[in-house]
Structures are given as C-alpha cells and as structure tokens.
Amino acid sequence: MRNLTTTPAWAALTKHASEQADITLNQRFTADADRFEKYQLSAPSWFLDYSKNHINDEIMSGLLALAESQKVSAKLASMFNGDVVNPTEGRAALHSALRYQGSDPIKVGGRDVMPDVRSVLKQMEAFAEKVRSGTWLGFSGKRITDVVNIGIGGSDLGPLMATEALKPFAHEALSLHFVSNVDGSHMVSTLKKVDPETTLFIVASKTFTTIETITNATTARDWFLDSKASDADVAKHFVALSTNAENVSAFGIDTDNMFEFWDWVGGRYSLWSAIGLPLMLSIGPDAFNRFLTGAADMDEHTKSAPLGSNMPVVLALLTVWYSNFKGACTHLIAPYDQYLHRFPAYLQQLTMESNGKSVHIDGSDITVSTGPVVWGEPGTNGQHAYFQLLHQGTHLIPADFIVAAESCNPCGNHHELLIANCLAQTEALMKGKSTDEVVSDMKAAGVAEAKIDELKTHRTFAGNRPTNTLLTQRLDAYALGALIAMYEHKVFVEAAIWDINPFDQWGVELGKQLATTIYDDMSEAVKAGVSVSSHDSSTNGLINRINGMRHKLA
Ligand code: F6P
Fold first, then answer.
1. What contacts 276, CB < 8 A, 6 or more positions away?
2. CA-proximal residue: ligand 1, atom 16 (nearest)
C-alpha cells in the first residue's frame, strides 16, 4: 500500500484546501500586489503566468513538499538516466535521448544508445533531402509531391500535430497527408487527392502489428499496384518507421527503406524518433534539428531548475492540486493559435494514455483521482462554443491558455485581436461579474427595473476560474519542441506524485482483443447464415442486427 495520502504534505494541503476554500482569486489579487511577479516562470522559449490560480505561498510550499516526499527529482533523474521506469513492460523511457545535444553516452542496459540515435537521424536527413530536393523519384521518373503517413495513436497524432503547427515553415511543393482511422473513408478520401506516380507512403508503426495501420497500408499498397506500378516499384513509394524489422519485411517493404527506433521509445513519446520523418520532410532537417534542440533545452531546464521554478513541475503540481484537493476532473487546453489545432488531441493521448490509471506502480489500488480528462480547441473558436460552460457552468475547469506574441502570418490587426481575446478570457474567468455590477450596467443602459430583476442572475459571472497562460515569442520549431517536451515532463511529474507508471497502456488491449473476436464471429455467422450467441445479449443483439442490415440475415 502506498502512503501518498498519509504524508504530512497531503495533510497540510487538505487543511489549506478546506481553510482557504472561500478565498477568491479576486481577493488574492487584492491582497497581494506582487502576485504576477511572484507566480511566474521562465523556461526555454516559454513564459508562464500561473498567478491566476487558487494558490498562495503556503499552498505552493505544501505542493512542493508533496513533490519532495514523492521523490520527484529522483524519479526524473531515473528517467533521464535510462533506468527501467516502465516496469510493467520492462523498459526505459528515453525519449530525451532522441533529442540529446551533448556528447555524453546515454545508456540503456549498459549500452550507449546515442550512436544508433545519430545514425537514424542521419539516415532520415539524407532521405528527407532527396525527397525535398526532388532527387528521390517515383517509378515513372517524377518527383514526389505528396506524402501519406499511415499510422495511428503516437504514430499519427505527434507528427500530424507538429506538421500542422509548423505549417508556415513547410516545403511548398510537398503536401503531407495523414491517414489513421480504419474507417475506409479516411484512406479512400485521401487516395482521391493523390497520384500513385508522385506519392510516397510512410507506414508508421512501432509494433507493425496495429490492425488499423496494417489494414490502411495494405489498401494503399493495393491501390498503388493497381496503377502502372510493379512490385519492384514499391521500394520507391513505401517506407516504414518501426521497431519491428521482421514484420516490415513480411509486409513487403525492404528494410533498407526502414527507419528504425527502439522499444525504449514509447509510442506517444516517439515524435522525436523516426516517427518524426513526415515532420522532417515538411520542415526540413535544419528546422527539425531546431525542434529537437528546443526539446533538449526543456529537458535541461527540467533536470536542473529547482522544483519551485521548474515549469513542468509547477504545472503538474497545479494539476494535482485541482484534481485531488479541489475536485476538478478535466483540464482545458486552449491554444490561441490556429496552427495548434491538433495540439489538444495530441495532449489527450500524451496525458490520458499515460496517466489514466487506477493502480500504483506496485499494483496496489489508488485512492485518489489520477489524470484528468484533457480537451480543447483553438481560441477564439472555443469562445463561441463551450466557453459558456467555463464561465457560468457548475464545474471547476482549470485551463492552459497558450499564445505567441508574434504571428507567423502577420495580417492587419488579427493577431492583436487574438491576443486581446486570449487575455480577456483569462481575466473574465478570474474576475467574473458580480450581480451588483450587472445591475448597475443595466441601469446605466436604461433597462427597466423588472427586466433587471428578471435577468440579473442570468447575467452574473461568478468568476474565480483558474487559468495558466503560456506565452512565447513566435511558434517556431524550437518553441514547439520546448512546449511538447514541457508537457511530456509535466505528465511524468504528475505520475511521479501519484506513483503510477505513465509509460504503459494496458487499458487499450481489451478492446483490441474483443474487436478481433467480434470481427471473426460476425464473418463466421454470415458464412454459416446463423446468429451469434456467444456474447452478452446487447452485443449479440447488435451483431445480429448489423449482420441483418448488411447481409439480410435474420
Ligand atoms: O492503442 C495504443 C497504442 O499502442 C498507442 O500507445 C500507440 O501509440 C498506438 O497504439 C500505435 O501503435 P503502433 O505505433 O505500434 O502502431
């Protein structure tokens, strides 16, 4: 049994939460003129304002004491050192090695992994240069104009999100496409846009066993071979990103066209590895290296900054504070940057697949809430959709607002309006609007007394909603690398506090197994012309109904 909730730090935080429950953010700002100076942090490329949170020095000390009692520094060191921090899969989690810029060896099981890391990076660079310069030719001698990445989860969300985020720096003659869903519509609609003579397919799968990816890759290969291409031409149009050379070869991709990575790279942490090839193709090797450097510099910040001025640690502690002491269940990611439109989806996998756990690392039950539901959309769109609930709903929803001082596409006053909206939302969420203010505004506008009485509570904003604001100069490759690494470490620190393993994902297995069973049962039943009865009545009923609808079976 773990003793998280019996630590003195936990007890102190429980006491602070109860004693300070009624202190509002407005009161905290009135009481302390230095709040902004006090609760801010700088890390590579990013400035964090965390003053609009339900914290004071006492609470921050309690949270930092909790981090110390949960040995956060030692656990971080252990991860960076290549120790087996993922015991249920017997693996290290060394995504930091993939972006390491120093010359020291980084060892897994006594072996320096850096020569392999650098060699694959060189292989990627050489390949990317050929495709980008037009010297890698398709089977009919034409240059590649379209790249289709076929992958799912970590083999899709990271490269897709980053390729979108860095679109202003993209190669103009190369279009990137991402197909992930086993729903044939995803592949079919993508294939309609491309030409077999000028398309490169990247089959991205750590395991090379994932049913969605193998199904999509098979459809793409069949489509390719249905053109004038021959089997021998597959080598010019299909490459693989994987740890599984045997399956890559069995699929028909020459392992010379495979970019390798290793089992110590978790799927959702793999963007820095060969899985980043689509991003490198899009922005080029130099920008990709700046992306790695941004992340490496954030690694150094995370390793060396004291806990209280360590950005991922402070943000993780705030999530623990809201999840475990203030009853929050979700966390909003609000990037005020259209190019970050896939960032919330990427963070969903990073945080929810990592910290959606109910047992501690030793297998014992957890008695407190772990990873919150992460969600979001870019601002200002979200304001016209779900922000109503943030402002006047009944749930406490901590939020991260992310914004750059400069636009990558300066145009009129758009960026000033974007920034103004971002800041206005965090101010409104914090300050709210009292009924007195509502009444006086309505009186000033000449609204009748009866109408004011009818509407005043509807128009009142309680405020007191906490937010963080993350600010950078401009969202370039370096800043994006640093931002992603920061969130990776935030997730790790939360896991360290909850004492859970953030690097396994056993929770996805059951559904995969049952899908295989149901797939087999459905097809067998169709062949035999019978009903399925081996599941529960709901699942049987649905299978039989769908078989009936598709095959006119009873
Ligand atoms: O569904 C879970 C998962 O294993 C993720 O963790 C992973 O990112 C994704 O599937 C894809 O796996 P692979 O890269 O092996 O195809």
1. 124, 158, 159, 162, 270, 288, 291
2. 205
